[in-house]
Amino acid sequence: MSGYLNEGLPIPQAAADGLDAPFWDGLAEQRLLLQRCADCKQWQWGPEWICHRCHSDAVSFEEIEPRGTIYSYERVWHPVHPALEKQGPYLVVLVEIDGAGIRIVGNLLGPPEQSVEIGAPVVGVFEHHKDANPAYSLLQWEIVR
Question: Do residues 60 and 71 both lie within one domain?
Fold first, then answer.
């Protein structure tokens, strides 16, 4: 799949401490892996060494369906990076993951002029960049029609 945004953006990769590596590895395998606490059973995003709620260190990455609803969105018109100088507009959404009570940011695929409704159902789409060095994958979002 070719990229939704222009080439030339920094390549996303796991943090140096490896904390979020399972998330990025999961995307490469077409799986959404987010952290969940084994003690209080709550999901969390972004990744941390301890649970955001109960402070347990029994957190691990578990697979969850890449489905949710649009909580908020922004139609971006002005470039936030030189590679996006001729990109605008594009859509960025904040998606509330079904059944998890957490939100994650991503791009909304489709025409940038499309109508976007808060609460619209979305499904994750995995965008792979296997020819990049290093290779990486992204999670984009698409409205369920």
Answer: no
